[in-house]
Amino acid sequence: MAAAGASVSAARSPGAPAGTEARVRRPPPARPSRLPPLLVLLAAAAGPGAGGAARLYRAGEDAVWVLDSGSVRGATANSSAAWLVQFYSSWCGHCIGYAPTWRALAGDVRDWAAAIRVAALDCAEEKNHEVCRAYEIHFYPTFRYFKAFAKDFTTGEDFKGPDREPQTVRHTMIDFLQSHTDEGRPPGCPSLNAIRPRDVLSLIDNSSGRYVAVLFESNSSYVGREVILDLIPYENIEVKRALGWDKAFLQKLGVSSVPSCYLIYPNGSHGLVTVGKPLRSFFSSYLKSLPDVRKKSLSLPEKPSRADNSEAVLWREFDRSKLYVADLESGLHHLLRVELAARRSLAGAELKTLKDFVTVLAKLLPGRPPVRKLLETLQEWLASLPLDRIPYDAVLDLVNNKMRISGIFLTNHIKWVGCQGSRPELRGYTCSLWKLFHTLTVRAGTHPKALDGTGFEDDPQAVLQTIRRYVHIFFGCKECGEHFEEMAKESMDSVKTPDQAILWLWKKHNVVNSRLAGHPSEDPKFPKVPWPTPDLCPACHEEIKGLTSWNEGQVLLFLKRHYGSDNLEDTYSSDLGDTGEGAPATGEERAGGHASPEQPPADRGAESLRPPGVPAPRPRLSERSHQGLDVKLESLSGAEGRRGAGAGAAFLGTGFSSLDMSLCVVLYVASSLFLMVMYFFFRVRSKRWKVKHHHPSV
Ligand SMILES: Cc1cc2nc3c(=O)[nH]c(=O)nc-3n(C[C@H](O)[C@H](O)[C@H](O)COP(=O)(O)OP(=O)(O)OC[C@H]3O[C@@H](n4cnc5c(N)ncnc54)[C@H](O)[C@@H]3O)c2cc1C
After folding, report:
1. In this predicted complex, what is the ipTM?
2. Of 514, 547, 569, which residue constitutes the final position of a domain?
């Protein structure tokens, strides 16, 4: 990775935006799709005690505590130590770039574990997405503090610091520890408060039989508190801090500058410590190496067993000149079931953006009929909603349950093909999102009537503006969204035709490529170069007066071909819908394709209702069914609604929709009535017959 990064930086011209007139071109990359056939990547994925996997951090190898859905609540609730948890997403470039810093920080404060622990939880792991939702994580990375001995569930306190440099984070950790009450302070955390002059004198006068170090420092210094925490696991020594008082007192002890360390030895002798530099590391190291100062055992993140530690991911051969249905559908699955599902409910601008984005998807996304039908139904349903706030569970219920019985479904498997990364944390979702966006702008350019009747017709910016709002509001990578917004502010208004919209997105994507070249999130097998590369589109590249430049007319033609429906490859996607649609999956499909053990039984049951193979989708839901959904939704607003939606989902987990159940009841009542009518009819007839043929008096 480092070597690739170095070569990338060397070939890049930092100032020149790629995708514009002139640029420095890098040598064409080796064809990345030609990795050894069926290469099995052993992606070591670490787990917490519970054995879960996280892609950027490895429990037992890093000092970071790796949490997951099974361990986060147990770890942070009523804990004897405070926690600083980074909720990240392994596909987020900023999280990937920040991971070395977080690891270094965790290693740096490893000895503070009895007081405060540095942890990480991967929200891109689908098994974690419910828990990330519960903690209200909308963007990545999000840093939250959790106090020791928190009794009730809490979403934690946001990290507040001017930057995320290790020193800043360390200082905020100390501030956070000091915000505990005396009773609530972690028992393993010594007092971080400064002592008074007379306390120093009494320490000197009354030897405790062990070392006592007093750090004299200024009010704004954190050195004393850092050294106190660094020495937590060490026996036979106690560290105190004292703020610089009057010069006379300090001079008496021989202290001429702060920070300085004054040491009282176990035998009662005392004196000023001389270190090379008055820094935390120098003081800590000196004190740790004193005779008879020993380290106690430390609670550290557990290393998972080997069996838990690896997962095999099958490499899929693919053609870089093709677009894969599997990438688009996997991306859509993540978008609908994970990214948007981070919101409990949607209202105002969020709801409007969801509606517009689904409209654009429904009208423009090519693909398999069940997925198109699902988007169409979702769009009609959202458009018909009279509510100004909807619980997102209702959307999930529709996507996961209501339409499955009709054969309208979206895969719940993640299966990257053209978006595979050479490591599990690389590429994937963000790659598929770009592909989805390009496909939408191209389709709007090649099918000018597609948006008729939506309110977006005749607006060449409609698709771009909808993408912009989606990225701004929902895209989990906040910094990515901010960068994209800057680019949009700068020039999106200049787009006057659908073709310009296609080219705008292409240019801006190349700007992002150029910015990220050499970044830790760059996959060495898929280097960030101006795209399309000459081997993909020779006609797109020209040389004018010795400078390489784009032929934008050819680029436009290429993009229309590349992102057009004729270039859509169904390979690898035929089995996407074969198992367990509806419920969230557990990330990238494992080699062997076993059904997820977390898949709810209800879904497996519903599966048996559908014949194998891709079923023919039924016609769209009738007006009546929409009304039914609306009525249900009206009772769903607010917290109660959420509970209702949850219950609805469970009930519908049998595979029957509420419409189906209502029809059953109606049919049942109708047939009972019919039988009763028949019964009375024949009784009356038989009575009449008896009267007619029975004349005992005659
Ligand atoms: C809107 C948006 C903004 C982002 N901003 C950031 C950011 O600020 N920082 C960050 O770290 N990450 C950012 N990302 C993620 C980043 O751009 C990549 O998606 C990620 O690094 C994975 O890269 P990749 O190799 O899969 O290729 P990607 O850049 O994801 O591209 C996916 C595929 O699109 C095609 N492609 C490449 N370039 C173009 C182009 N110019 N036009 C059309 N098609 C193209 C190629 O086939 C490529 O494989 C952003 C993602 C999105 C969707």
Report:
1. 0.99
2. 569
